[in-house]
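User: Hey, my collaborator sent me this sequence without any context and asked if I could get a structure. I don't really work with proteins. Can you help?
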Amino acid sequence: MTNDKCDVADLEPQFQSKITNRKSKMINRLVLLLVITLALTARASDPVFSGPQVGEKLPEFKLRGVFDDDAGKELDFVKQANGKPIVLIFIHDLNRQSIAMTRILSQYTASRAKEGLATGVVWLDDDATEAESTLKRIRHALAKEAPIGISVDGKEGPGSYGLNRKVMLTILVGKEGKVTGNFALIQPSLQADLPKILDSVVAVAGGKVPKLEELEGMREMPRKEPAREQDPNLRGLLRPVIQKNATPEEVDKAALAVEEYVNKKGNEASRKEVGRIANTIIDAGKLPDYGTPRAQEFLRKWAKDFGGKRDDKPQEKPQEKQQDKPQDQSEEKPGAARKSGDKE
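Assistant: No problem. I've predicted the 3D structure and written it out in structure-token form, which is a compact way to encode the shape of the chain:
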């Protein structure tokens, strides 16, 4: 009996030691979790840097022009500005946010060119040929008067600038060869970021800071991007069209189902939504990622027929317009091939 009691007594410290070790491990884990959380929170609030900072030199750099008289020519926006106020917009990533900010800001700055404000839009891409093709495709979405060029230094941009490729846009404001404003935008917001940029521009170019609603293009934004409920039927209708392994016949059949659906009376919103989706894919340069070449023909067709300014055509009822309409439809290769193939 005595030996049994002694054995139990001897084991109690061991149990207590195990419990203590477990508590210690739990505390260590909690401390580690707290440290990681604090580190992530601090990192999230850290400022993002891209390009030369305020007060630093604005180096000259070379680009290749794309449009009109600048096409194929070597450009240098900083050198051309010759110390005058300048706004440089570096496009790292193509999407609706970056293009909207670029268009509206550069439309404003280019409109003040006669006042001595220089503008330069810089496209960053490792493939110069693909970059030129993309720019020509989305030219309608860019400010016509704003000079634009492709950086000869690829996606990283000029080495002396130290650009951060993780941001969507780097916007620099400068004067007399130095940076006066730097905006590294991960997710460009017209409402949150543009007013700060305009303040910086006016600080070097003079004048009055415009209200957002006064800027060209801003008043159109609510109409172009209204809050909408997507038709729940569209996803199921569009999916067969863009299947990578679909045959031309299967694509034609699926595309016909889409067109029959969106052209039904009362489905105008769905028709416009298909046009918007097709335009978004094309403008983003993502068309090759969607379906087969046959499917891509239909996406191009829907972008023209259902999207953009073509949406206004059904509202025009003069006879000459109605007479022209059948000719336009007969010119569409996918539509013509589908009708002759499926209905007969």
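In plain terms: The radius of gyration is 29 Å. You can pass these tokens on to your collaborator as they are.
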